[in-house]
Structure formats: structure tokens, C-alpha cells
């Protein structure tokens, strides 16, 4: 699990020492303890974002695995839509976590270009998600309208009729 690994070894890794007092024995302005994230001390906002999206990705992935292994109502359309939305959350959380980590492990002189690139990629990702989401909303609306009788139900073709049509064309 990538999200688990990212949580245990965040971008910029973790402090290897305790630093509470300076060489003169005076308390330091920003102390740290071994095992705590360096990114959490230096890039507080980015670390906060990282800690929102990384657990989202991790828990969504685990939820999908659990739902698929449970075998509950897999052939039901609404159940599959629920799983699909959870999968979107997992993938989106993982993508955003990746970009946050990428920005924070890069050299300072590449931050401007990297920020621009990741901003464009995130916008493209969100646009793709919007297209897929809207497509599914349309599918849901058509399904509801058919169920309530506002639209004609699909006519199912029988395989025997299909075979006869194919033979007549030849």
C-alpha cells in the first residue's frame, strides 16, 4: 500500500534526533523529536494537505478491497456505483498525495516550474473526473426516468433474432 508507506515515511522523511535545547542548554525556538516528520515542521500547510489526502486514499483503498472481498450484492447497479465513487476517492487522494510529496521532496529552484506543472495536472485530473462523474449522473438520470416510466425501457434483442439478421445480410 503506497498510502501506508507514505504515512510512515512522509516526504522529507523524519527527524533522526531530539532537538529541544541548544548547545548552551537553552530551549530552542522550534524543538523536534526523533521520528516526527520534518515536513510537518517546515511545510505545515502542505503537510496538513498531505495528512488529509493520504488517509483518504488509504481508507478508500481498504474499503474497496473489503467491499469486493465481502461478495455483497456485486451485481447490483447502485452497489457498483458506490464502489466506483469510493474508487474515485482512493485514486484522487493518491494522486493529490503524490503531487504534494513530489513538490516537497524537490529542490527549491524547481518549485516554481513543478508547482505550475502539478497545478495543470491536477486541473486536468479534476476535469477528467468531472466528465466521468457527469456521464454517470446522466446514466443515473436515464435509469431513474426509465424506472418511473418517463422514458421507454430498452428493448432487449434476442440472440436468435440477431443470428437471423446476420444470415439475411449475407
From TrEMBL:
Subcellular location: Membrane
GO-annotated cellular components: membrane
Keywords: ANK repeat, Membrane, Repeat, Transmembrane, Transmembrane helix
Membrane topology annotation: Multi-pass membrane protein
Main location: membrane
Residue intervals of the PGG domain: 2-102
Annotated transmembrane regions: 52-74, 81-100, 120-145
InterPro entries membership: PGG_dom
The name this protein goes by in its record: PGG domain-containing protein
Species whose genome carries this gene: Eucalyptus grandis (Flooded gum)
Amino acid at each position: 500500500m503506497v498510502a501506508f508507506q507514505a504515512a510512515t515515511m512522509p516526504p522529507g522523511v523524519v527527524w533522526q534526533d531530539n532537538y529541544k535545547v541548544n548547545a548552551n542548554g537553552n530551549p530552542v525556538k522550534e524543538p523536534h523529536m526523533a521520528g516526527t516528520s520534518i515536513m510537518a515542521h517546515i511545510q505545515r500547510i502542505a503537510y496538513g494537505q498531505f495528512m488529509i489526502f493520504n488517509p483518504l486514499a488509504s481508507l478508500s483503498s481498504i474499503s474497496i478491497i473489503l467491499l469486493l472481498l465481502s461478495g455483497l450484492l456485486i451485481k447490483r447497479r447502485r452497489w457498483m456505483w458506490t464502489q466506483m465513487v469510493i474508487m474515485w476517492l482512493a485514486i484522487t487522494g493518491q494522486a493529490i498525495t503524490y503531487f504534494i510529496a513530489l513538490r516537497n521532496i524537490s529542490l527549491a529552484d524547481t518549485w516554481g516550474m513543478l508547482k505550475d506543472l502539478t497545478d495543470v495536472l491536477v486541473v486536468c485530473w479534476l476535469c477528467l473526473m468531472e466528465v466521468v462523474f457527469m456521464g454517470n449522473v446522466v446514466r443515473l438520470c436515464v435509469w431513474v426516468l426509465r424506472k418511473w416510466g418517463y422514458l421507454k425501457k430498452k428493448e432487449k434483442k434476442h440472440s436468435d433474432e440477431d443470428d437471423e439478421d446476420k444470415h439475411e445480410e449475407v
